[in-house]
């Protein structure tokens, strides 16, 4: 019987290295079959040893996150951001390392978004004045539409044009019909010249 060693591979919790643990077993010399340790000479048992292995660097890769929300809902200058970093596998996970450990090119972390034109207000033609004399009101249609001409709710309320305005025809309105009735007019009496007096007749005049 002779003592032998066997290795167990594992990883250290440090970059680019694993380890092998060498432990002694008792084997039959003729067949190499493992047998009970009681059959081997304890004084010749090898001392357990730990050796490092696979010291080369693990392959690194670029990792990217999800794109964030666009900075604008429409128009020019909008952008999105995402996280980009270099990662190295460690056991069952990945660990972030310095970017110079990954091969170029580095994935972009920023991109443009929502380049379409913003909805805007459209105003119609003013209507005729609401009255034919004196003061009145004019109206017009004001709509919010997108770049495709479809109705939209995304226009800024602060920029909405007014849809009413005062107007004046320049013609004075007539008096109400109640004031035009004779009973409301100033009292006047026509004065006629005195007639020629005829003997025997009563005089008439003002």
From TrEMBL:
Main subcellular location: secreted
Signal peptide residues on this chain, from the entry's feature table: none
Gene Ontology BP annotations: extracellular matrix organization; integrin-mediated signaling pathway; proteolysis
Entries under SMART domains matching the protein: TSP1
Keywords attached to this entry: Integrin, Secreted
Single GO cellular component term: extracellular region
Molecular functions (GO terms): metalloendopeptidase activity
SUPFAM superfamilies registered for this protein in UniProt: TSP-1 type 1 repeat
The keyword Heme appears for this protein: no
Tagged with keyword Secreted: yes
Subcellular location: Secreted
Protein name: A disintegrin and metalloproteinase with thrombospondin motifs 2
């Amino acid at each position: 019987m002779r003592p032998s060693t066997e290795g167990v591979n594992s990883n250290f919790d440090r970059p680019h290295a694993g380890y092998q643990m060498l432990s002694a077993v008792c084997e039959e010399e003729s067949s190499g079959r493992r047998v009970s340790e009681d059959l081997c000479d304890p004084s010749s048992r090898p001392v357990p040893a730990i050796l490092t292995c696979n010291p080369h660097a693990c392959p690194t890769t670029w990792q990217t996150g999800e794109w964030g929300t666009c900075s604008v809902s429409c128009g020019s200058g909008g952008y999105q951001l995402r996280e980009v970093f270099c990662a190295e596998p460690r056991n069952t996970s990945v660990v972030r390392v310095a970017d110079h450990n990954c091969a170029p090119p580095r994935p972009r972390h920023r991109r443009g978004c929502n380049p379409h034109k913003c909805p805007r207000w459209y105003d119609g033609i003013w209507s005729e004045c609401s009255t034919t004399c004196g003061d009145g009101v004019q109206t017009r249609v004001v709509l919010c539409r997108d770049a495709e001409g479809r109705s939209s709710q995304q226009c800024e309320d602060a920029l909405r044009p007014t849809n009413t305005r005062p107007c004046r025809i320049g013609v004075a309105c007539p008096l109400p019909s109640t004031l035009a009735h004779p009973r409301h007019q100033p009292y006047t009496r026509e004065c006629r010249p005195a007639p020629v007096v005829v003997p025997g007749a009563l005089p008439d005049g003002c």
